[in-house]
Amino acid sequence: MSKQTIPTATHMLMPTYNRFPLTLVKGKGSWVWDDEGGKYLDYTSGIATCNLGHTPDSVKDQLEIQLDKIWHCSNLYHIPAQEQLAKKLVENSFGDQVFFCNSGAEANEAAIKLARRYAQEVKGNDGYEVVTFSQSFHGRTLAALAATGQEKIQQGFAPLAKGFRYLPYNDKQALEQLVTDKTCAVLLELVQGEGGVVPADEDWVKQLAELCKQNDILLMIDEIQTGIGRTGTLFAYQQYGIEPDVISLAKGLGSGIPIGAVIANQKAAQAFTPGSHGSTFGGNPFSATAGLATVTHIIENGLIARAAELSTYLEEKLQRLKQQFSPIKEIRGRGMLQGIVVDDNAIDYVTKAREQHQLLVLVAGPNVIRILPPLTTNKTEIDQFISVMERVFAS
Ligand SMILES: Cc1ncc(COP(=O)(O)O)c(C=O)c1O
What we know:
The protein is an alpha/beta fold. It contains twelve helices and 17 strands. The longest helix is centred in the last third of the chain and has 22 residues.
């Protein structure tokens, strides 16, 4: 392994991250290079973001063209790429209208605001409460943080934004507590990513969706990690036989260029009117171009079907790994979002993979190794990944 040079100004960054001792300077496809020329297989995809692999040509070409045109102009003017991206998202989902922002947390903020305004301005009641679930993760801004059902992430930020209530995930009985006269929406991950790669139970989701429908409570799916082909369909909700009112997106939407979005049906979207919400950068010409090129590439190249097929191959190999090594307790996930549940510290395996075998994977909580290959990976790379994991577990 190459010797790493740690940049000298790290101490000038606020210590919000425990960074690995690795400086990545280049990426192509499933591979990244450090500042000493060391090459790594990247099965993190920048935390479920580089779904087309690093620096995909189809996106790069469009961005290069856009760089010579205009980068930013604000949302006071029409932005063709933003409107084309909205059209692509609407045509390929349940939705009717889209709001663009810059990140996942902002997308959830917009969704939460939309839900409250829908209850208060459209339905005419004082519903403000959003139901979320234990171990969920919805982002770090104040409302997204309050929506997040994990105390450790909320610690030190009191008072939290009011109006959130948490129910246990995948618990049918707890659904009895879902509806109150204050409930305006449910915000739900269909695979809890940060919370340990935990897929939602299909019957539970259907029951929950039905309750929302009966009570005119907005069903809002947080697709920030699961969206843009990550779980085997363009959006994870498409595998659950449900129709949400709202979904939030970010991560994979721009291939690494920051962009977030909220897609809503007409019923919910009408709650926003001029001046009720906004974002200076949201969907600007540059980020919208990245989003449009990304979604176009995924759809036009049949990447979702290909990735779904590859993920079956990956899952089979992971199941075999489980049979070989007793510390592995479970393999769980959907599509290209997989977790290896171990009975000891996941970070030790992640560190060994990186330091000894130049493989990048992540953790999701203390005992889950999280695997997020780009949708563009192939069987050879999957075999390489498995062979490294075999060596990691054998040592
Ligand atoms: C499900 C989910 N929601 C929201 C977020 C927050 O996104 P961002 O970090 O872009 O604000 C994340 C990020 O990991 C996520 O996985």
